[in-house]
Design goal:
heterotrimer, A mainly alpha, B mainly alpha, C mainly alpha, A: Helix Hairpins, about 75% helix, B: mainly alpha, two-stranded antiparallel ribbon, 25 helices, 4 strands, globular
Chain lengths: ~100, ~650, ~170
């Protein structure tokens, strides 16, 4: 039995699908953010795997992941700040409560 | 002659218009008046210099060895060059008729400027009035010196605009406003014909310029290639349509209805625009294109018929008007029609086409004496504050200057020797008799009517019986600014007939020696004197003859007084037929078909948006569901397509 | 032996990723969700190590596990009372989520298993001669040639600075 690329991509797919499921179903804003991180992480893993198996001599996939992690950090910081702000404004972080601006 | 002087003739009035129009509100009335008069005075001097140089200098640039006066485009600036054929130029064409018109326009305009200083004194909008007068002078001068038909059209519209502005000068009076609208719409309507005519003509001869068109009319005819439309040649159609434009401006039947109403404007305006200059633009237009009209005799016949009918109609109506300005307005229509007929009967084989010369001569003399009559009427209105002769009567003792100058004007228009009208009218009648005895006889009758209604007016104003109101408000002669133009114009009307006009203006620009045709002159003089005598009997002293006549023919009097119901006919056509039947159905179509379609679109859009607005929920999770399903769908389709 | 060790390591990490991913999105206690996510991230880091990207694995642990997760935990503690469970899912939402995920999963896995490119190199072949050393990473990050990343690097640093300021501005007390 050999470990080919497929083996690594399957957990990545499952991670991503879990992220989608969580994003669609969860009520809590922070839980949605967690799902987002899952999807992001799955994508990162894909980059690395492709880099390793298809272009072993190059480093582009790795660098893409590196920057992606940096941007994820930035995004999370802002998102968390917004969530905290929302909590201050309406007292909870349920996405169904944030409907004031809806038509 | 260098180019600057002719440019100045156009530049000074337009500059004056801009200065007075923009800066007028910051000026005192006196200053605006002085500026306007000075500007026009200078323009007049330059125009005289230019015209007299043209006629008398003998410069080979203006006249060749055989005595042929040349057409000189002093400058011709290419303004818009669309294609090689479609080029619009602005220029200054000096030839006998334009030089003559320069003199007429600047003289009358200067007189009116001077006169208005007295007449309009104390009026609100004095500066505006002078600005508009300058605009009009500019436009009219630009019209007569146009080197091409398109420039003429541009200035033609500009005089229409200034006429509109000046008729509606008292814009607070509803009657003035509707009169100005009427004038504008009717002339605009006629100008549509003019424009179509221009387009047809220039389509075939590939140029707008007068000089190539008029110097070589046969090539224009050849260029149409014998094309015909509804039995008449294309060239005839073009000329008739161009003449329709002239009919509108010159108030020929059936487009005459605006001119009587235009009398709502201030009287100096009536004198300048609606008697002496603008309304003869139609005559000028035909004269300008005359060589073309000559090769299509059908169009000349049309001109003649329209003129003859209009002349008679206007003369009859003028006999039954109460408002003195309306009498003068109809007299103007009649006299312009006279000129049209004279143009229409002119043929080169008949005494070198002297009908053309006579027409231009009458244009010249008529401008002078009709301006004089209008200015005199203005002085009367100024004195008694009414337009109707019923408020006048017996004024000769109170207003001697006005009386004498008005009498001279009446004698001139009636065609009594030695006043100017006699000479020009005699030439015109001679030309008509030379063409066909019918035109001569018909127009002699009109000339008799002219003498009759003018003297009816004269007697009713200055004799008849004294109006009792004079006791409380004594009328007096106008101030010098108003009297001076009257005296000058009267003097001109006395002597203008002795100008050897044929030496200067003829259809082929070769000199022609005027000689009075004794039988014609005797006939017309006799008819005029008889008519004056009749008027004297009827109107000199208060007597019951006129009212008895009126009672004898109430229908005729009423019809003539109401101008043979032309306005009513127009009202019927426009309101009952066009507005009620055509416009209403179109409006229905617009509202219920076109608008309804558009409303339908709007309603469908609105309904659809309301139906699908739930999708725009603002819920990010719903969005992600749609987004994700879409992505999956796309990926699936791609997958299916690949394998 | 190496081969066997790799396989065992792979199965452990894969199992951890799959199980804790599912638990992350299904747990109704938010703090537990965060913890499960942490496990997923750590397992991913292990996978990076296994694939020969030591630096990346370290960054994953430091930034994700060390930084981002702490942020999440703080946010959770700030916005939740103790023992506050998330309300139960409505069946409508669950069905929707499961349908979407199932569709996506079917498509992705189908694509994955029919893709011939997946069957090429094995891990051992890929790993033989390419150890990504720190020297190469540093050169690539701070160079301006082709395949070098000074500009994105600087851009990310500016982005992070902007985030710091933005986070402070958004979250500060008014």
């Amino acid at each position: 039995m050999e470990l080919t690329m497929l083996w690594y991509l399957v957990p990545s797919v499952i991670m991503f699908i879990c992220g989608v499921y969580g994003f669609i179903t969860r009520h809590n804003l922070i839980a949605i953010l967690l799902s987002l991180e899952l999807m992001l992480n799955a994508a990162d893993l894909n980059f690395v795997v492709f880099n390793r198996f298809l272009f072993p001599g190059a480093m582009e996939g790795m660098f893409f992941t590196l920057f992606s992690i940096g941007i994820a950090a930035a995004e999370t910081a802002i998102a968390v700040a917004i969530v905290v702000n929302i909590y201050r404004a309406i007292g909870n972080t349920d996405i169904n409560e944030i409907k004031k601006m809806r038509f | 002659m260098e180019m600057t002087l002719p440019i100045l003739i156009l530049a000074i009035p337009i500059t004056m218009f801009l200065i007075l129009g923009i800066g007028g509100v910051y000026m005192s009335k006196k200053m605006a008046g002085v500026l306007g008069i000075l500007g026009m005075g200078v323009t007049m001097c330059i125009a005289y210099y230019v015209a007299l140089t043209y006629f008398f200098s003998g410069d080979p640039a203006f006249i060749d060895a055989q005595g042929l006066r040349l057409q000189v485009p002093v400058f011709d600036w290419l303004w818009l060059a669309f294609t090689n054929a479609l080029q619009v130029k602005l220029g200054f064409l000096l030839d006998p008729i334009s030089a003559m018109m320069l003199i007429v326009i600047t003289t009358i305009s200067f007189m009116v400027h001077l006169y208005s200083w007295g007449y309009m004194e104390g009026e609100k909008g004095f500066q505006r009035f002078y600005a508009f007068l300058s605009l009009f002078s500019f436009s009219m001068l630009g019209l007569v010196v146009a080197t091409n038909i398109f420039q003429m059209y541009i200035f033609w519209e500009l005089v229409g605009v200034s006429s509109y502005l000046l008729i509606g000068f008292y814009y607070k009076l509803p009657s003035a406003v509707s009169a100005s609208k009427k004038a504008f719409i009717v002339t605009r309507f006629a100008d549509l014909g003019f424009l179509i005519g221009i387009l047809i003509l220039s389509f075939y001869c590939k140029t707008f310029d007068f000089i190539p068109i008029t110097n070589d009319p046969t090539s224009v005819l050849a260029s149409t290639g014998g094309a015909t439309f509804m039995g008449a040649s294309v060239l005839t159609w073009a000329l008739v349509l161009i003449f329709v434009g002239g009919m509108g401006k010159s108030a020929m039947m059936p487009l005459h209805i605006w001119l009587p109403d235009a009398m709502e404007g201030p009287t100096p305006v009536s004198a300048l625009i609606h008697a002496a200059t603008m309304v003869v633009a139609g005559v000028y237009l035909v004269a300008r294109m005359f060589p073309l009209y000559l090769i299509e005799e059908a169009s000349l016949l049309f001109v003649t018929c329209v003129g003859a009918i209009t002349a008679f109609y206007a003369a009859v109506v003028a006999c039954c008007q109460i408002d003195i300005k309306r009498v003068l307005a109809f007299s103007t229509i009649s006299q312009i029609a006279f000129m049209m007929v004279a143009l229409g009967v002119a043929r080169p084989e008949l005494h070198d086409g002297f009908g053309y010369m006579a027409s231009m001569f009458h244009l010249f003399t008529h401008a002078m004496f009709k301006a004089l009559l209008f200015l005199g009427a203005g002085a009367l209105i100024h004195a008694v504050h009414s337009n109707d002769y019923t408020a006048m009567g017996g004024l000769r003792k109170y207003m001697p200057i006005t009386h004498w100058t008005f009498l001279i004007g009446c004698l001139a228009i009636a065609g009594i020797w030695p006043f100017s009208g006699f000479f020009s009218k005699d030439e015109m009648l001679a030309a008509m008799f030379a063409n066909h005895w019918f035109w001569g006889a018909w127009m002699t009758m009109v000339a008799g009517l002219t003498a009759f209604y003018m003297f009816r007016l004269y007697y009713l104003i200055f004799w008849w019986e004294e109006n009792p109101h004079y006791k409380e408000h004594k009328p007096h002669d106008a101030p010098w600014q108003m009297s001076l133009p009257l005296i000058i114009l009267a003097a001109v009307s006395c002597v203008a007939g002795f100008i050897p006009f044929g030496e200067f203006v003829t259809w082929n620009r070769m000199p022609y020696h005027i000689h009075i045709e004794l039988p014609v002159a005797a006939t017309s003089l006799t008819v005029a004197i008889l008519a004056i005598a009749l008027a004297t009997v009827m109107y000199r002293k208060k007597n019951p003859i006129p009212s008895r006549l009126k009672a004898a023919m109430p229908g005729l009097w009423q019809a003539a007084h109401r101008r043979f119901y032309w306005d009513e006919i127009y009202m019927f056509i426009t309101h009952k037929i066009i507005f009620n039947i055509i416009c209403k159905s179109i409006a229905w179509f617009d509202r219920h078909v076109i608008d309804a379609t558009m409303d339908g679109f709007a309603k469908i859009t609105q309904k659809t948006s309301f139906a699908i607005r739930g999708m725009q929920s603002g819920s990010i999770q719903t969005y992600i569901v749609w987004y994700f399903l879409g992505a999956v769908l796309l990926a699936g389709i791609t997958w299916i397509c690949i394998f | 032996m190496d081969q066997v060790g790799n396989i065992i390591l792979y199965f452990v990490t894969a199992l951890v990723i799959i199980v804790f991913s599912v638990m992350t999105v299904t747990s109704r206690k938010i703090l537990r969700s965060a913890t499960y996510l942490l496990f997923v991230l750590l397992a991913t880091a292990v996978m990076y190590f296994q694939l020969g990207y030591q630096f990346l694995g370290a960054v994953q642990i430091a930034v994700y596990a060390g930084g981002i997760m702490v942020l999440f935990v703080f946010a959770i503690l700030l916005t939740h009372r103790p023992n506050q469970d998330e309300q139960a899912l409505t069946s409508h939402k669950r069905v929707l989520g499961i349908t979407c995920s199932a569709l996506g999963a079917i498509l992705l896995l189908f694509a994955l298993f029919t893709m011939p490119v997946c069957e090429g190199t094995t891990l051992c072949q890929a790993l033989t001669d390419n150890n990504v050393d720190m020297n190469a990473i540093g050169t690539a990050l701070l160079g301006t040639d082709k395949f070098q990343y000074l500009l994105p690097f600087e851009a990310v640093s500016v982005l992070l600075l902007a985030c710091i300021i933005g986070g402070v501005v958004v979250a500060r007390k008014r």
